[in-house]
From TrEMBL:
The lineage of its organism: Eukaryota, Viridiplantae, Streptophyta, Embryophyta, Tracheophyta. InterPro entries: GED, GED_dom. GO terms for molecular function: GTP binding; GTPase activity. Residues 38-111 form the GED domain. This is Dynamin-related protein 1E.
Length: 111
């Protein structure tokens, strides 16, 4: 998720307005609200909206799949616990004994 944060690189890639005239900075403050300034703002907002749209396009499918997997895992665990809860103590004991003996035989065979 950290890859979707705004970084300095995002702002460096924005088109920079290069002043072609040799006017001092005080003269540019007078013309601050000219059409070029608004175009630059619109361009920056458009770039930001594009970044947000790309981020959503990349992260929403992952989040949906994560939620589906989490729900399936909970459902399987619930089913497993229900099945284990239905077993009697004697059958569970024999099951665990057989698993233990199987592991012990496998250990001796693999040696």
């Amino acid at each position: 998720m950290e890859s979707s944060y705004l970084t300095v690189d995002f702002f460096r890639r924005l088109p920079q307005e290069v002043e072609k005239s040799g006017t001092p900075a005080a003269a540019t403050n007078i013309d601050r609200y000219a059409e070029g300034h608004f175009r630059r703002i619109a361009s920056n907002v458009s770039s930001y909206i594009g970044l947000v749209a790309d981020t959503l396009r990349n992260t929403i499918p992952k989040a949906v799949v994560y939620c589906q997997v989490r729900q399936a895992k909970q459902s399987l665990l619930h089913h497993f616990y229900t099945q284990i809860g239905k077993k009697e103590v004697h059958s569970l004991g024999s099951y665990f004994l057989s698993v233990y003996l199987l592991r012990k035989c496998t250990f001796f065979l693999n040696g």
